[in-house]
Automatic annotation (TrEMBL):
Protein name: TolC family protein
Taxonomic path: Bacteria, Pseudomonadati, Pseudomonadota, Gammaproteobacteria, Methylococcales
InterPro entries recorded: TolC-like (IPR051906)
Keyword Coiled coil part of the UniProt annotation: yes
Claim: Metal-binding is one of the keywords in the record: no
Length: 424
């Protein structure tokens, strides 16, 4: 069942600014000179979609072979359920000869195991549930892969934002250092101010080096997960109109199908009873070879073999499947709790970041205006360099916070969609 999300109304307030900002950072993986030789290249491809990246990742994901084996298992179970016999038939041939060499006995027989009442239908039900479980497991794995790709992309976007901000701050600091150097050379400022500006520039260079390292790590995580070095040109998502965890959540569907399969297996094992009833059909030949007066007898026989008293031997199999069934029931209960918790956290984070984005944008405007006033005061000698650097650092942090909140809001939308079980 679908619900309208009451939190969606607040998105348009910040969406235009977010879209413009993300348009500048998402394709912003174009390479520029780096401080360290180690480089993990990433290429932004405008025609590549997020859904396509997930599909390509799923093809190379380690669970792909396991999913294929589940399909093969379901086909094998279906093949057995479609068989007219409950197992392999047996053919026998027995030859007996008297020590005198004058008498020969020959027996030939075929033994066929039959399905017990309702057992074949139960086996076909197991096959159907195995097929459903295999399909739902594929959907569950796709959701998990989507979560990995989403997290990797937005981690990389944040790392790239920090890197670009560090480059900007270094450029601003270098420009200030150059201005201070000129004023020191003119005698307007003491040399101590130049050393202070140079120290600030070196600190910013160190920050840039670390930010570059984090960006390379984020890129490597993405390429390790996806086995590719291309990212979508844009990967922002729309918030889905779901306000609670649905029973159609892929993880719930997967474990429910596992439970239904175990229940079908339990029923099929119980119908085995003491074993399979067998029908035996045969012929035998008794004849003398040397005495023409003897009778030459050919006979036909049919028999039924019915097992009994096997409940004690079947009980361990029933108990083993019952243990697995109850374990799955416990896992489903825990999964439901985990999904509710994840949904609550995703919804809460989304609401917090909406509010924080508004505050961060206002703080950025105030800080930038204050910085302009501070530059004017410094140029006329009303404040010293230390005060300017403090206010400049505070402004740069405000700018970074506003940009980060923009990215984090889009990331939280993707994580909310992930929490309610929606794939790209």
């Amino acid at each position: 069942m679908f619900f309208l999300n009451p939190f969606r109304r607040r998105i348009p307030r910040f969406l235009p600014a977010i879209v413009v900002f993300l348009a500048t950072i998402t394709p912003g993986f174009a390479e520029s000179p780096h401080l360290v030789d180690h480089l993990d290249p990433i290429e932004s491809v405008a025609t590549l979609s997020l859904a396509k990246v997930v599909d390509l990742t799923l093809e190379k994901y380690p669970d792909a072979s396991w999913l294929k084996s589940l399909e093969q298992e379901a086909a094998a179970i279906a093949q057995r359920g479609n068989s007219w016999t409950a197992g392999a038939s047996q053919a026998g041939l027995r030859f007996q000869e008297a020590t005198s060499g004058t008498l020969h006995y020959i027996d030939a027989s075929v033994q066929v195991p039959l399905w017990n009442l309702g057992q074949r239908d139960a086996q076909q039900t197991v096959a159907k549930q195995a097929e459903n479980s295999a399909l739902s497991q594929a959907d569950a794995v796709k959701l998990r892969v989507s979560g990995l790709v989403r997290a990797a992309l937005w981690d990389m976007a944040l790392a790239n934002l920090n890197y670009e901000q560090a480059k900007t701050e270094l450029a601003i600091t270098d420009q200030l250092r150059a201005k201070v150097q000129r004023r020191v050379e003119l005698g307007d400022l003491p040399r101590a101010d130049f050393l202070l500006a140079q120290s600030e520039s070196l600190q910013k260079r160190s920050v840039l080096t670390l930010a570059e390292a984090e960006l390379m790590h984020a890129r490597k995580r993405y390429s390790s997960i996806t086995q590719m070095t291309k990212i979508p040109g844009t990967y922002e998502e729309k918030l889905v109109e779901l306000t609670e965890i649905q029973q159609s959540h892929p993880l719930l569907v997967a474990i429910n199908n596992q439970i239904e399969r175990k229940q079908a297996e339990l029923n099929a094992i119980k119908l085995v009873g003491s074993g399979q009833t067998n029908v035996a059909v045969g012929i035998n030949s008794d004849r003398f070879t040397d005495d023409q007066r003897s009778n030459q007898t050919e006979s036909f026989n049919i028999g039924i073999i019915v097992p009994f008293g096997g409940s004690a031997h079947l009980a361990p199999q029933v108990a083993a499947v019952n243990v697995e069934l109850n374990k799955l029931l416990a896992e489903r209960e825990q999964l439901s709790r985990d999904l509710e918790q994840a949904h609550h956290e995703a919804e809460h984070n989304l609401e917090i970041n909406r509010a924080e984005l508004g505050i961060a944008n206002e703080l950025q405007q105030v800080a930038e205006e204050h910085l302009k006033m501070t530059h004017l005061s410094f140029s006329v000698g009303e404040i010293n360099l230390m005060d300017l650097l403090k206010i400049q650092s505070r402004t740069q942090q405000a700018v970074l916070n506003a940009k980060q909140r923009s990215v984090m809001l889009q990331r939280d939308i993707a994580l909310y969609n992930q929490a309610v079980g929606v794939t790209p």
